[in-house]
Amino acid sequence: MRSFVHSAPAQRIVFGAGTIAEVGPELDRLNAARAVVLSKPGQARLAIRVTTLLGSRAAAQFTGAVPHTPVEVTEHAVDVARDHRADAVVAIGGGSTTGLGKAVASRLGIRHLVVPTTYAGSEVTPVLGETSGGEKTTRSAPDILPDTVVYDVELTTSLPWAVSVTSAINALAHAVEALYANDATAGTDDLAIKAIRSLAGGLPVLRADLAGLDARADLLYGGWLAGRCLGAVGMGLHHKLCHTLGGAFNLPHAATHTVVLPYAMAYNAPAAPRAMSLIAEAMRVDKQGGRPPWPPATDDEDAPSAVQSLVRELGGPTSLREIGLAWGDIDRAAELAAAQAYPNPRELTRAGITQLLQHAYAGDPIQPS
Fold first, then answer.
1. What average pLDDT does this structure show over 323-327?
2. What digits encode the pLDDT tens for the residues 142-173?
3. 253-286 confidence digits (pLDDT tens)
4. What is the mean pLDDT of the chain?
């Protein structure tokens, strides 16, 4: 018999096409009248678009969001919000901007509305990862959860193919680790399986038509489901490794998830056979309803090799070397990842993590078990 305690914090979700037009009314629902619009430098045009839609509700813009949420950037954005007497932040972009929004809103106790443009999923979690002094730490609290998320499928149609792949695999990682989390429930299992199907099924369809709204909707929906998994249960080795590699060595977030995921799965597979079976089955995408007859997981592939095959087939990164890690960084990365205990289905050892990172550095093919 499985026993558990589950809390479900309130959050409003708006999902559809063209829904960016609702940011003003949604901010009104939060009783907010002075919002700072946040974005990365490369998405300043989107910030301007949101500012225009907000009209007099927009107090300022801050377009300095960067990956891994450095504390010094957060402090700058907090100063901007205070100077303009903001009572809300509106974050438009991917996980970097969402993270900045969480950091600012939770520090100031103000409202937070997110307009995601990737499949990161962090917008539906009460989790915040911040970097200081070359180390990334994670904390979770109810006040970190954004108040409202506006998903507009049309905003993802300009996402480049390479970013679409890594962002979707980043989301896939949330669902994968949810299936072997020690606090998983039947409900989170269901969310995870649906997320894997949407993400693994949507990517091949999108490859055939990058502007296809249906495939984009599948991926954004899968990202939402995967994000709910991330917010509901604890993550294991994979997420710890990715946070370590990103915070200490400044590796790109989604690309790091994409490379590491199959190796972390292979490490955990002996201790999580049920989860791996569920993942492999979900990876066999539906051949009906217009989906291509190309199942990423074939009968002779297990879950880790199926994920790696999917990434290779779609042209995603497959080695830590190609995304910027140096061989000499591996020992330090393993030391950091093994320094603190955290839930994981298989015992964590520095030697085991070192070997995992060595294989991931080289991009070694994963052989089905």
1. 98
2. 999 999 999 999 999 999 999 999 999 999 99
3. 999 999 999 999 999 999 999 999 999 999 885 4
4. 92
Tens digit of pLDDT for each residue in 168-224?
999 999 999 999 999 999 999 999 999 999 999 999 999 999 888 999 999 999 999
Gap between the Cα atoms of 222 and 180, Å rounded: 18
Q: How far is CA 48 from CA 40, 51, 109, 154, 219, in A?
A: 12, 5, 25, 17, 26
* Long-range residue pairs from 124-128, CB within 8 A, at least 24 positions apart, any chain: 124/11, 124/13, 124/149, 124/224, 124/227, 124/228, 124/230, 124/231, 125/227, 125/230, 125/231, 126/9, 126/231, 127/230, 127/231, 128/69, 128/99, 128/102, 128/103
Residue 113 sits at φ, ψ, to 5 deg, of -115, 135
For 335-355, the DSSP string reads HHHTSS----SS---HHHHHH
284 Cβ neighbours under 8 A, 6+ residues apart: 295, 296, 297
Sorted by sequence, the CB contacts under 8 Å of residue 292 that are 6+ apart come out as 204, 205, 208
Q: Which residue reads 């079976």 in tokens?
A: 277
CA pair distance 203, 189, nearest whole angstrom: 21
- Tokens representing residue 45 in the block: 């045009």
3-class SS of residue 305: helix
The answer to whether 237 and 268 are in contact (CB under 8 A) is yes
Instruction: State how far the Cα of 66 lies from the Cα of 29, in Å rounded to an integer.
Output: 29
Say what the pTM is: 0.91
Helix and strand totals (H; E) in the chain? 13, 8
Residue with the two structure tokens 């990715």 = 242
